[in-house]
Each structure stands twice: as C-alpha cells, then as structure tokens.
Write a structure and sequence with these properties.
The structure is a homodimer.
Chain A lengths: L2 H8 L18 H11 L3 E5 L8 H11 L4 E5 L11 H5 L3 E5 L10 E4 L8 H7 L7 E6 L7 H10 L3 E3 L27 E5 L4 H9 L4 E6 L4 E4 L3 H14 L5 E6 L7 H9 L4 E6 L4 H5 L5 E4 L3 H7 L7 E2 L1 H7 L18
Parallel strand pairs in A: 1-2, 1-3, 3-4, 5-6, 5-7, 7-8, 10-11, 10-12, 12-13
Antiparallel strand pairs in A: 8-9
Chain lengths: ~350, ~350
C-alpha cells in the first residue's frame, strides 16, 4: 500500500458518510419540529458531518416549510464526530441538532439524529464468511449501522458462530459500536473481528489497536470485503518516532474541541520537559503548525489526525504514548494505538 | 499584475509582520510580569499574529524564567487582527496577551502589546517624495509604526506639506491608523495619501476604498516605494459579481470571530431571499465552503477574505454590497470596498 493509498484509506473524510450513490436518510424532522414547538424556539442550529454538509440546505428548507418565524443556521465548522460539537452554535440557538453521530454524552441541549443506513448488510456479510474461520467472532459496527446490530448478531449465530460483543466504555453509546478513536467494544475473547460498515477508517484503527486480531471488513456501502492491514500505518508511526528522537523543541497540542481535550496529559508533558510548549487550537492542521518553529509535535487531541494525517505535517507528529518512546521514557516495544476514553 | 501577484500582494500574511530580516521586538515582558503578579495568575495565554507565532516559544521561555508556577499557553489559532482574539484561550487564562495589534476595544481581560517597529522610516519617506505633489497630503500608517506617527507628520510639515490626518472610527485606536478592513482615517481632504508601512495589504485596501486618491506606499520594511494599484482587484470583483448573477442558491456566511460578526446584515439577506442559507464559521476557507453545494456565497465577515482570497474559492464569494448588485437590488456602479465599522 502506497503512502497515498494509506492516507486515502484512513482519510477522516472516508468514513462511509461520503457516499458515491445517493441515499435517503431519515433526518427525523418530526422530532426536530416537536422540539422547536415545545421550546418555542426562535433559532435552530444544524450541524452535519463533512460528507453530508451539502444536504443542509434541503433539510433547512424542509424545516422552514413546517416552521414559521424560525431561523435555521447551518454550522460551517468542520465536523468529524460527536467529539466535535459546534459549541458556538449550540450556545446561541434554542434547538441544536447534531446529525450523523451517536451521542458521546447525552444533553438536553442537543438533539442527536444518528442517520441510520438503510443498506442491506446481509449479502456482504455472506461474502465476508470466506475470510472468517468457524467458532468465535467479534462483531462491531459504526453508528450508521447500529440499527441493524441485533440482526447481524442473529444472522451470524444462525450460521453457527459464537458472537462476542461488548459495549466498550462511556465514550460509546451502543453495544458493538466503534469510533475512530475507541475500540473498547472489540476487547472480546476472539482472534477475529467482523467489522460491518463503510470505509476503512474504523477497521484500520481497530487493527492498529488490536494487532493480534484478524479484522475482516464487510463494507456494505462500497460492497467490498477485505482484511484491515495496519502495517503501512505502523511503519509510518515507527518512522515518525525515530525522526522525533532528535527533537529538542516540542510543541504539545491541546485540542479545544469539546470531546478531544486531554489537558492533564498535555500539561504533564510540558511540566516535565523544559523544551516543550503548550499550544492550544481547535482544528489541528499542517498549515497552522507550520507557523511554529518546533522540531516535533505531540498531539493530545484526536489520535486519527496524528496517525492518518501525520505524513502531511512538516515535522514529526506523535501521540502522547509515542512521545514517551521518542524521549526515552519508554521502550519502542510499547508503541500502540492511541485510543481516546471518556467524554467531557 | 497577474492574479498570483495580486494575491500575494494582498495576501493576509503579507502585512509586514512576516519579515525577511530579523528584528528585535519589545514584547513588554515587564508589563506582563507585573500583571501576572498583580493577579497572582496561574495561567497565561499568549496570542501572536501568524508571522510572529514562531517567536512564541522564546517569549514563553523569557516569561517562565521570571515567573514560578505559571503555565504559559500559546494560541495555535490563526490570527490576523485584533478582531480575531482567541476567546477560548482568553476565557481560560488569568492573563491573556495579544501581540501585534492595537486594541479594537479595551478590556481588563486583555493585555495588548503592539510590537512597534524600530525601523527608521525617514529614508523611505524621502524616496516617496518623488511620487507626491506639493501641498495637501493625507498620512496613514499601521499599528506597527504608530509610535513614529508624530515624527512622520512633523517631517512632512517641515518639507512644506499640509498634512491631513484623522482618527477614523471606534474600530481604530489611533489617529492616522488604518486596518485591513477600515480606512476611515483616510477620509481626509487631499487627493493623495502617503501610506508608511510594510506590505501592500493595507494600501491596496485603501486604494479600493478611495479610488479617487493616489495612494503612495513608503514601505520601510522592504525598503520600496510604489503606487497602490487596485485595478486588478476591482476587475476580479466585477468578474465575481457577474458570475454570481446567475446564482440560485446562496450561502450567507456569518463569521463567529469576536470582531467580525455582522449578524443583522447576514440575517437580513437570508430573510429576504428564500434561496439563501445562513452558515456560521470562524475561519472562512475554500476547503470549508467546498462542502456546501451553493452557487455563490456572501461573506459578512472579514472583507479581505472576500477580496484577497476570493479567486481561491470554488464559487463566487461576494461582500454584502456586491451581493445587492448581483441580485439586482443595486446598480453595478455602486460597487465599492466593503469596510468594517464598530467593534463588538
């Protein structure tokens, strides 16, 4: 796999929400209208993930047709997860709707509309059986397919598999759900995991987090079966760690996004290294870091920015765990995927 | 002038703060240390403009050497003006220092360190006299050279000029000061204006705002004299307005940056156009707008994004005034530079 393929495979945008074919989503307009009327709301904020932002105007039209004197505001902030709420818009609207992600933390101020997929997963699961051995299998999926999770489990059990599932931790709403940064639901007693969902973003993270497990991808969106191969990513991680070993001046990034803050971790690094500087930002991009004259960066925010976008930064960008290796506090063998736990 | 030259000439980064040669700035450390001690501050936030972000670590080091148990945090958010405070960092630190811009609005929560230039302006002013006729001349400069404004005035008066200066409006701290978005200080009774300062960003805006005046640039940073020529910019503006005349679906951008909000203006457009949608964001970038399936955009935030970065957006991007022309509410002759007034 080339660098470019690896990046595109793990690209944050390539998460199954940006679809090649058109699809009808259920925007749950009734629920939104009810909430607007209940609260007598004047301002309604809508936040969509990147791949669905272009549906915003049509949803706004549908709402305006049913609501008088209600101002609809679309969030133009980048959004890659429920960790990534547009808090500015949320605080300035009476009803705030976050589409496409399951709740990371329930709140009366937010309506989460999950946007479940209506694609039939069974044909691709059937195809994926060629890659599974009999017996124990873990089962995970994303928010978009959670509505069919029990059917998936039953379908596998009817074919003789012993299906292992877990709820994971606080960050995950549902049993069997994975996030790009959290695979606690795959901490199960099986050497193979079936991932049902679109894109390679999630299963690649899963394969990095659980290198001992065979991760079979049944992708009903692109209608393809494959095995998640984290090797290219791991090579890139080792290369970045090695490059950063010579670094003197470190930029330690504290991400200000509501669900991506690990302040204690960032602060601990800075307190123990006189050549480390705390930098706060919301979007962590190559452009923004270019302005800082650092030898290397540690990102305490979204680990997927570090692993997937890493090669695009002008200087090595490490996860907190990788930083400990680079500065010699831990052995190279400790290199592992940086998962994110808790909410806010 | 090619598109590329025009863009680089007006580039937001090219404002004289990003210097080719090294320069010693006065970071006013004593003032910061005094304030930290007075407030018994635990957390200090530092915000630098883009061209000076790389000085952040050295300033942090100097402060850490003088202060015990104080955490220094550097803002990694893009920053192009005093309109652009990192309010997240400001609200979470006991002392917040904004470098490189004069106050748009005084506040006890903010220490503004202007970073005055120590470059000698007289040699380049002498050279600029070749481009000035005798008699009346307006004089303007930027925050970086305000400390020498009275010397500039005296120098011109001693050479027989009648010097016209103005304070401008609330958005401007000082007499004779211009901002990239506000040239009220050049509303003076003279057909020529001498701009003393680095870069072409400010004088090009000035020439757009006052097309009837000859704007002579005396640039002591790059040691060059020239005449501000807004023609290329104006051509681009006309082209954008023409392209947008066919637009059906409009994205109306409300910028959430503290000093760039014109909500009433944005709302008025949306209320009077069923095919207009309000989009909220902080950084207005081509990437972010790419996700929205609009035919054209109106930007109620920073006018320099519209005029200077305009050609980089995938769809026409207009100022509110240009929008009125594109939809037929006003004649083409009304096209003018979009200046920004007031604070927040």
């Amino acid at each position: 796999m080339s660098n470019e393929e690896a990046r595109s495979a793990g690209d944050l945008r390539n998460t199954g929400l940006s679809l090649r074919h058109d699809r009808t989503w259920d925007y749950e307009l009734d629920r939104i209208v009810d909430e607007v009327e209940r609260k007598d709301a004047e301002k309604v904020g809508l936040q969509f993930p990147e791949g669905l932002k272009r549906r915003g105007p049509a949803v706004a039209d549908d709402l305006r047709a049913r609501l008088d004197d209600t101002r609809i505001m679309l969030s133009g902030q980048p959004c890659y997860g429920a960790c990534d709420l547009d808090t500015y818009l949320m605080r300035r609207t009476d009803v705030f709707v976050h589409f496409g992600h399951s709740p990371m933390k329930e709140s009366d101020s937010i309506i989460y509309v999950p946007l479940f997929s209506n694609v039939d997963v069974e044909p691709i699961m059937q195809e994926a059986r060629d890659e599974l051995h009999d017996g124990d299998v873990g089962l995970v999926t994303t928010a978009q397919h959670m509505n069919q999770f029990e059917e998936m489990r039953t379908w596998l059990e009817e074919r003789g598999y012993t299906v292992h599932t877990r709820r994971g931790d606080d960050r995950l709403t549902n049993e069997g759900q994975v996030l790009g940064c959290n695979y606690a639901s795959a901490d199960i007693d099986a050497d193979q995991v079936l991932y049902v969902g679109g894109g390679k973003f999630h299963p690649l993270g899963l394969a990095m987090e659980h290198p001992e497990k065979n991760v079979v991808i049944a992708d009903p969106v692109n209608n393809a079966v494959s095995i998640a191969d984290a090797e290219q990513f791991l090579k890139e991680r080792y290369a970045s760690v090695h490059k950063a070993m010579d670094a003197e001046q470190w930029g330690v990034i504290f991400c200000t996004k509501i669900g991506q803050g690990r302040f204690d971790q960032a602060e601990e690094i800075v307190e123990n290294n006189d050549n480390a500087y705390l930098i706060t930002m919301d979007e962590v991009t190559p452009d923004r870091l270019m302005n800082f004259d650092m030898d290397a960066f540690v990102n305490t925010g979204c680990p997927r920015i570090t692993t997937d976008d890493g090669p695009q930064f002008h200087k090595p960008m490490l996860t907190p765990g990788e930083y400990e290796i680079a500065v010699g506090n831990k052995p190279l063998e400790d290199l592992s995927f940086d998962t994110f736990h808790g909410t806010w």
